[in-house]
């Protein structure tokens, strides 16, 4: 067909569709339990019948108008369907209630606005479905006009077939689904690789096409009918048919070929086609359509159609205004409404989007659209129902026609181009800011109000200032980036550390009606060939601007190919934000450190620049100590300390904590009894369902606390869990019969089943997504001691996200507390010794969870000497390729298995892995010997970028690194005394070894300190919540304690102690010290204050006090330790008099100098242990002096006296 003969309404197609939440819940009962139902596959299929329409607006306006147009277009096209405006849904539901179709209540659930349908007419689901098939609802006269329009573009042979088809239809309206002369480029995915790019760019058509959703199955009916006729250029026609066939088949179209010679089979094929269409639509829907036409009152019929169609009109008209603004700089559009649709409430709500956007960004008044009565006065004619009017080409001469059109059901419009991100005004009033953001919060995400901390994060992000958001679990971190992303042009990169977390975030966006997201990751469920095709198609779609959110792992930034792709992504579209989720993974101070996060800030700013637009960084985490926050700022290149946003409180009152100490023999029975009690409890779930919950452990294969063992144990003892409990772990268990790819498939399915409550209970390792968002998790059980208070709260915090009461249990074994205390004390036992101790008595770890955790820690920290050997081996290899001149650069490939080839001794003693090698690379990166590195997974090599520096550069860089974490005195302890003229190659090795020393003295000790704090908290179960909150939350003592860490000032220590009055003061001060002690486990002031506060709970604090005096003696000899002891003793006598002798005994054990012995002897209770020990030290000291005197020359002795 010639281009001029193609109906004009096919040539400029776009898509947009909103829906009411209430209609989706009625249409799809399965979605009624979801907090947000817009991910419903039923709703997605039905709206795609009505989402396509013509829209042809050309031109480019000024920057302000282009920005407004781009943002409004994103709002209009964020999902199919996305939620309509709140006021429109209220309006439509009130009308439906008045028409007797339904009754509803508007409620707030877990901070979300929800419309609950409490009753409706019996066949309302089918009536709503039928309303999407508007072809079935139009009048007889309109049907005749449309059929004549169809025939006007057919050849004689095509018309003959259509007449036979029409004759086979039980209702002529069904024939309207057989569209003549449909353009091929409206029948394929825009990003699909095809063989016929030229055909798609041309105006090639098929003779007939049917595209109808199957209402009973999750699929579409797609059939092309080709009538093969003789042609002048028969060879060319045949070639095009073959090409089209390949293209269409790849997009799941079924091709029917009918020839003139075989007209005898046309009638049979026509009947088959009619039956296929009727089967797809469904008998119930066809009957419902007839019921709407013939039986409903005019009010009910109009109300029903409004309920389905007006939200679609809202999205389409909003997109019209967006395109008009972008092209013409104004929203003053005159719209003619010949079908008499109820558009006034629609335009009123669209005006809200436009007005609040103008207010938020301080934009000029773009005016607003108006309805006009006469077509001759209109800029645009808007049609939503099927009509013959668009088939009349002459009508396009004077007006823009916005009419129903056709699009492939997987089609997506590209993001609008030629628009740059914009800041909100710096002087915007808080009320204006809050009102505007609240409008978008409610209308885009259906939330009632912002939670604590969200507004502050969003405000900084909209000013395009980098922000680090530290919010507790379930505080709504993700919504912060989701909202600001929709209020800016372009697309957003979201960096997340776990595959499960990416899928979870994508699912959550989908449920909220934001369907324009994708994940770039390894899809374990497909073949390598399919993996490559999927990746290429995904990259192509991103370049074309088909997605708003792109989820990637940090490892992607290390892949050379992806770095090149990023440059392509930003050629046409800006990236306003790069979101670093679970940002604590940036820091080695955290348990979840990922080296791949390093250099992320630098790479984003260099690789993601669109013109002069550089992405603003939004870093989000639910758990971070001060050192971790410092690392986040440094590694992401955020220079502003005010970028950190924290809440006033981390307390979640809906979580009930219960700590249970058991013996190693009792653990299993206690776990069973807790779970049995939870199953029997019916105060928070339907009597037909089990409560949803997570059972955490750190092991997979362990015979006492492994995921496999615990799952099997619970299945054996609680038969009601059959089919309701599974295990989840990052790595497959030993008995898993399948490949790694099979395990990835299984994990994905498990996660989805858990979120849908098909599998309500999971026994899992901590790899089950840091931020998995399932609102109705009712319990968590830690089957063993968590590694830290932070980690515990993050995992327990996955419960109760809906705000309802939930229970968090900790079961722990502490049968040998003395050993746990010893192994968790880095001052007494270096990490290397732990393995030796436990190898001698391997059953010890079964008797203490804390001991078991220290053994696991040994796998991450191989020992100072081993790590130094690894760094040396790597540097020996790299330095052979080092440039001669300072400032020159080079690249060196290092195989993933490099360490296994270096030395047999290393391989045998430390089971070196790729991760060990990457840590060594990071050490060299930290001291400046390495500038950057990439990972080529195909070649299995690290690509190391080196730049030769000077020895002074190394010194300055290492000093700067240390000063972020330590006092000046501590920094000097680690700085080597090298001269600038020292050999550079050797100097690198010296600094790298010093880096290893620092890591072990601070980071490794911090990990053990964190477990110690967790152990101390659970040992006092009645005070567990109090201690947990004191640890997590900032108080009036946080800043003073932070100041203490910056220097060694004895007077400052005791001034802080004196401020902590009463038990409440001690608890808050202890909490502040605990956080900082994990980062600075050797700070004597922190240890002293912590020990003092802990005396409130008995003599638990004596260990820390002893550690303080040991460090003072060894590292700070100039400090008067006796003066410190006197000041401490004075305060202990006043507040904890019963602990005086124990305190003196502890001090003496760690500092047995004669001066300290004299003090203890004078202050101790006579004949107490402290008194006797002090006397013993003094006597021993006198004996040593007398012995020396006896050895002197007799003539010299008198002079001594």
Automatic annotation (TrEMBL):
GO terms, biological process: DNA recombination; DNA repair
Entry EC number(s): 5.6.2.4
Gene3D superfamilies: P-loop containing nucleotide triphosphate hydrolases
Pfam short name (any one): DEAD
Keyword Isomerase appears in the UniProt entry: yes
GO cellular component labels: chromosome; cytoplasm
SUPFAM superfamilies in the cross-refs: P-loop containing nucleoside triphosphate hydrolases
GO terms of molecular function: 3'-5' DNA helicase activity; ATP binding; DNA binding; four-way junction helicase activity; hydrolase activity
Coiled-coil annotated residue ranges, if any: none
InterPro entries, alphabetized: DEAD/DEAH_box_helicase_dom, DNA_helicase_ATP-dep_RecQ, Helicase_ATP-bd, Helicase_C-like, P-loop_NTPase
Residue ranges annotated for the Helicase C-terminal domain, each copy included: 670-845
ATP-binding as UniProt keyword: yes
Helicase ATP-binding domain boundaries: 458-642
Keywords (A to Z) from UniProt: ATP-binding, DNA-binding, Helicase, Hydrolase, Isomerase, Nucleotide-binding
Top-level taxon in the UniProt lineage: Bacteria
Family: Belongs to the helicase family. RecQ subfamily.
Protein name: DNA 3'-5' helicase
């Amino acid at each position: 067909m010639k281009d001029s003969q193609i109906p004009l309404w096919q040539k400029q197609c776009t898509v947009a569709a909103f829906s009411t939440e209430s209609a989706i819940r009625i249409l799809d009962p399965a979605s009624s339990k979801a907090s947000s139902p817009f991910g419903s596959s039923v709703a997605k299929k039905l709206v795609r019948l009505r989402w396509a329409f013509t829209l042809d607006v050309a031109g480019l306006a000024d920057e302000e108008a282009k920005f407004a147009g781009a943002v409004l277009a994103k709002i209009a096209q964020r999902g199919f369907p996305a939620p309509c405006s709140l006021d429109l849904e209220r309006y439509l539901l009130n009308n439906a209630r008045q028409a007797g179709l339904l009754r509803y209540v508007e409620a707030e659930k877990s901070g979300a606005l929800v419309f609950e349908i409490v009753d409706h007419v019996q066949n309302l689901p089918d009536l709503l479905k039928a309303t999407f098939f508007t072809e079935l609802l139009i009048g007889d006269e309109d049907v005749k006009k449309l059929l004549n329009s169809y025939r006007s573009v057919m050849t004689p042979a095509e018309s003959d077939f259509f007449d036979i088809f029409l004759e086979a239809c039980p209702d002529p309206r069904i024939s309207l689904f057989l569209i003549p002369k449909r353009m091929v480029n409206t029948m394929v995915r825009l990003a699909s690789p095809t063989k016929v790019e030229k055909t798609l760019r041309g105006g090639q058509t098929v003779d007939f096409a049917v595209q109808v959703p199957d209402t009973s199955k999750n699929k579409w009916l797609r059939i092309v009918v080709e009538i093969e006729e003789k042609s002048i250029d028969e060879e060319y026609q045949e070639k095009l048919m073959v090409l089209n066939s390949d293209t269409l088949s790849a997009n799941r179209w079924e091709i029917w070929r009918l020839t003139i010679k075989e007209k005898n089979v046309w009638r049979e094929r026509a009947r088959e086609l009619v039956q296929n269409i009727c089967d797809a639509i469904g008998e119930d829907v066809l009957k419902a359509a007839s019921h709407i036409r013939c039986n409903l009152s005019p009010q009910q019929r109009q109300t029903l159609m409004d309920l389905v169609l007006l939200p679609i009109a809202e999205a389409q008209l909003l997109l019209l205004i967006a395109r008009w603004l972008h092209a013409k700089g104004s929203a003053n559009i005159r719209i003619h409404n010949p079908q008499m649709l109820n558009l006034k409430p629609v335009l009123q709500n669209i005006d809200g989007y436009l007005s609040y956007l103008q207010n938020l960004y301080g934009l000029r008044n773009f005016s607003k659209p108006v309805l006009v009565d006469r077509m001759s006065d209109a800029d645009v004619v808007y049609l939503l129902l099927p009509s013959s009017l668009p088939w009349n080409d002459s009508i396009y001469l004077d007006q823009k026609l916005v009419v129903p059109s056709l699009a492939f059901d997987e089609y997506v419009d590209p993001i609008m181009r030629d628009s740059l991100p914009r800041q909100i005004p710096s002087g915007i009033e808080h009320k204006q800011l809050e009102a505007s953001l609240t409008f978008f919060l409610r209308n885009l995400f259906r939330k009632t109000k912002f939670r604590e901390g969200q507004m502050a994060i969003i405000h900084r992000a909209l000013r395009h200032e980098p922000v680090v958001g530290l919010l507790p679990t379930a505080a709504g971190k993700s919504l912060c980036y989701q909202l600001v992303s929709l209020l800016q042009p372009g697309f957003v990169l979201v960096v997340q550390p776990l595959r499960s977390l990416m899928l979870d975030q994508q699912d959550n966006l989908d449920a909220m009606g934001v369907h324009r997201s994708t994940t770039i990751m390894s899809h374990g469920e497909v073949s390598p060939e399919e993996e490559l095709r999927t990746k290429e198609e995904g990259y192509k779609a991103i370049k074309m601007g088909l997605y708003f959110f792109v989820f990637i792992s940090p490892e992607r930034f290390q892949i050379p190919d992806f770095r090149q792709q990023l440059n392509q992504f930003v050629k046409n579209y800006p990236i306003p934000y790069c979101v670093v989720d679970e940002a604590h993974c940036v820091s080695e101070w955290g348990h979840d450190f990922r080296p791949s996060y390093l250099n992320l800030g630098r790479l984003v700013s260099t690789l993601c620049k669109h013109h002069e637009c550089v992405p603003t960084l939004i870093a989000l985490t639910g758990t971070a100590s001060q050192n971790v926050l410092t690392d986040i700022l440094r590694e992401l290149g955020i220079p502003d300390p005010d970028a950190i946003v924290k809440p006033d409180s981390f307390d979640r009152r809906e979580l009930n904590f219960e700590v249970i100490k058991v013996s190693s023999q009792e653990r299993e029975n206690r776990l069973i009894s807790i779970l049995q009690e939870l199953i029997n409890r019916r105060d928070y779930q339907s009597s037909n369902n089990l409560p949803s919950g997570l059972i955490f452990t750190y092991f997979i294969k362990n015979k006492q606390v492994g995921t496999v063992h615990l799952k099997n144990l619970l299945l054996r003892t609680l038969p009601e869990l059959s089919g309701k409990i599974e295990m989840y772990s990052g790595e497959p268990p030993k008995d898993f019969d399948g490949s790694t790819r099979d395990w990835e498939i299984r994990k994905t399915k498990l996660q989805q089943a858990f979120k849908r409550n098909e599998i309500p209970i999971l026994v899992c390792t901590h790899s089950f997504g840091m931020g998995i968002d399932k609102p109705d998790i009712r319990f968590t059980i830690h089957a063993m001691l968590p590694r830290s208070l932070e980690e515990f709260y993050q995992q327990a915090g996955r419960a109760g996200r809906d705000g309802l009461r939930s229970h968090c249990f900790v079961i722990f074994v502490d049968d040998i507390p003395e050993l746990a205390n010893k192994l968790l004390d880095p001052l007494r036992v270096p990490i290397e010794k732990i393995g030796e101790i436990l190898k001698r008595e391997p059953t010890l770890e079964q008797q203490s969870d804390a001991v078991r955790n220290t053994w696991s820690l040994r796998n991450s920290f191989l020992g100072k000497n081993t790590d130094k050997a690894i760094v040396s081996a790597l540097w020996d290899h790299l330095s052979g390729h080092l440039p001669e001149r300072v400032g020159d650069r080079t690249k060196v490939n290092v195989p993933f298995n490099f360490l296994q080839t270096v030395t047999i001794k290393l391989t045998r003693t430390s089971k070196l892995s790729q991760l060990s090698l990457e840590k060594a690379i990071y050490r060299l990166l930290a001291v400046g010997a390495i500038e950057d590195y990439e990972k080529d997974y195909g070649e299995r090599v690290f690509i190391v970028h080196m730049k030769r520096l000077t020895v002074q550069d190394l010194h300055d860089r290492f000093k700067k690194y240390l000063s972020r974490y330590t006092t000046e005195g501590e920094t000097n302890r680690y700085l080597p005394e090298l001269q600038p003229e020292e050999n550079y190659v050797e100097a690198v090795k010296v600094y790298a070894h010093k880096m290893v020393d620092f890591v072990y003295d601070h980071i490794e000790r911090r990990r053990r300190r964190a477990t110690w704090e967790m152990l101390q908290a659970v040992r006092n179960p009645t005070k567990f919540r109090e201690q947990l909150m004191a640890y997590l939350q900032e108080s009036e003592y946080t800043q003073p304690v932070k100041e203490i860490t910056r220097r060694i000032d004895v007077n400052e220590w005791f001034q802080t102690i004196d401020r902590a009055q009463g038990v409440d003061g001690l608890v808050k001060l202890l909490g502040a010290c605990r956080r900082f002690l994990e980062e600075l486990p050797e700070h004597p002031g922190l240890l002293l204050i912590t020990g003092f506060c802990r005396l409130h709970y008995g003599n638990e604090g004596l260990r820390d006090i002893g550690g303080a005096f040991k460090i003072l003696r060894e590292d700070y000899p100039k400090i008067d330790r006796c003066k410190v002891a006197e000041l401490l003793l004075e305060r202990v006598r006043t507040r904890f008099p019963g602990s005086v002798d124990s305190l003196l005994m502890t001090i003496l054990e760690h500092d047995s100098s004669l001066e300290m012995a004299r003090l203890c002897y004078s202050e101790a209770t006579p004949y107490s242990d402290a008194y006797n020990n002090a006397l013993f030290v003094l006597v021993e000291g006198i004996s040593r002096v007398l012995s020396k005197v006896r050895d002197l020359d007799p003539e010299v002795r008198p002079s001594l006296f």
